[in-house]
Amino acid sequence: MAKLLKWGLLAVLAIALLIKLSLWLSVRSIMADATAQLSPIMSISYGGITSSFDGRVGLEKVRIAVPAMRDSLQVEHAELKFNGLGELLSFKERLAAGKFPEQMAVSLKGLTLDAHGPFMQQLYDSPAPRSVYTAMGEVVCGKVQRIRTVDLLDMGYRTLETDGQFSYQFQPGLQKLSFNLTSDTRDMGELRLGFTVANMPERPVDLRLNPPRVERITFELNDNQYQRKVQDYCAGKEGLEREAYLQAVVDKFDRVLRSQRIALNQPVLDAYARYQKDPQSLRIELEPTEGMVWDGLQFFDADDVLTMLRPVVLVNQQVVDALGFTWVDPNKRSKQPQADDEQGSLVPVALKVDAGQEVFVNVTGLGEHIGKRLRFITYDGMYYQGVLTRVNDGKAYLSVQGGNGTAEMSLRLEKINKVKVQF
User: Fold this and answer.
1) pLDDT band per the 50, 70, 90 thresholds, residue 2
2) Percentage of the chain with pLDDT > 90?
3) How many angstroms separate the CA atoms of 286 and 220, rounded?
4) How far is C-alpha 33 from the chain's CA centre?
5) Phi, psi of 183 (to 5 degrees)
6) Can you give the three-state secondary structure of the chain, one letter per residue?
7) What is the structure's pLDDT at 351?
8) Which of 301, 233, 254, 11 is nearest to 135 (CA)?
9) CATH number assigned to the domain with residue range 358-422, chosen from the 4 options 3.30.870.10, 1.25.40.390, 1.10.10.10, 2.30.30.100
10) For the range 46-53, what are the long-range contacts, defined as Cβ-Cβ under 8 Å and sequence gap of 24 or more?
11) Higher confidence at residue 100 or residue 113?
12) What is the pTM of this model?
């Protein structure tokens, strides 16, 4: 009996060693292939390979150098994590079968970048064009509109050290895919981004024929130390007291959004002012309605946009009530304009034929608008947009833009509540 136990333990130990060796060889082979394929662009080196029986494999002391950029980044420990050894072993099987893996997480510990290096210069010194998404990034800071790498150095940043994790989980039966990204940068703050996608096919090749739908998006900023440093730095450059500077920041944010045709209502601006005063936490949640057209929101009324996006905003764990905005004409100024470096104060305008070039039309008169772009709102709250091609047998036929071109769809006239024509 003792011999059986002894040999049994030895067998288990041998199997464990074989699994560890297999994982080590697999990671080494993958890294060798990746290094060879990426060698014309970058060089990759690492100090060692780690693995465990709970579904983790990793690399230590990774260094990625990009000669064309004359810069490099270091990662103290990079790890690929699965929910157990079984998920790890099935990962390659599902990839070989042309299917999405059901679960995966990538963890990076100690990712380090030079604050003045070419990577950061590309990010900070070549900013994206002004848009809704860049509004929070514009600052009141002397002659500059956005923080640059030289400003980062003046604020005391020499290197940026980040711990991050990206994870996703795919549920084939429910056709649902969940993404989560967490990034915690020392002396800056924590960023969390997550979204859930519905109608997700199991094979990547089916994405074009059956495009998925975004079901939920969450964005969160916590312990924004970077924002506090920017405020102190720029208030000093402007020669303003803290309260006066914070009001200037809110005014700037309002003007930038108005230049993009968006005027937030006062409760939202007040909430943004509270966040600037104490930037502990900012959380934005969106739950888009099914059938919403992402690239056509500017053609809908403001209230309809909110109905479609279903936003929730929390500032320092408190829900912001009375969310709202109005569309404005960026070319019109109020009677008492305020001084600004780029834009004056703007006044809201109604979306009529003169400004937005669109009007409501009667459903019974749709035949007069064949060939025009229409926006439909049904009685059950669904939104559709496309070019009207014909009206036959109590149906309106539309040519709509899809993921891989155009497609035709039809709507029964009795289900249509409102129609807008864009002239």
Assistant:
1) low
2) 36
3) 12
4) 31
5) -135, 120
6) CHHHHHHHHHHHHHHHHHHHHHHHHHHHHHHHHHHHHHCCCCEEECCEEEEECCCEEEEEEEEEEECCCCEEEEEEEEEEECCCHHHHHHHHHHHHCCCCCCEEEEEEEEEEEECCCHHHHHHHCCCCCCCHHHHHHEEEECCEEECCHHHHHHCCCCEEEEEEEEEEEEECCCCEEEEEEEEEECCCEEEEEEEEEECCCCCHHHCCCCCCEEEEEEEEEECCHHHHHHHHHHHHHHCCCHHHHHHHHHHHHHHHHHHCCEEECHHHHHHHHHHHHCCCEEEEEECCCCCCCHHHHHHCCHHHHHHHHCCEEEECCEECCCCCEEEECCCCCCCCCCCCCCCCCCCECCCCCCCCCEEECCHHHHHHHCCCEEEEEECCCCEEEEEEEEEECCEEEEEEEECCEEEEEEEEHHHEEEEEEEC
7) 35
8) 254
9) 2.30.30.100
10) 49/24, 50/77, 50/79, 51/20, 51/23, 51/24, 51/27, 53/16, 53/19, 53/85
11) 113
12) 0.73
79 touches 106 (CB < 8 A) = yes
Spatial separation of the C-alpha atoms in residues 232 and 393, rounded to whole Å: 66
Residue 213 has pLDDT above 80, yes or no: yes
Q: What angle do CA 352, 353, 356 make, to 5 degrees?
A: 65
Q: What span, in angstroms and rounded, lies between the C-alpha atoms of 291 and 402?
A: 12
d(CA 16, CA 9): 10
Domains of the chain by residue range: 98-327, 358-422
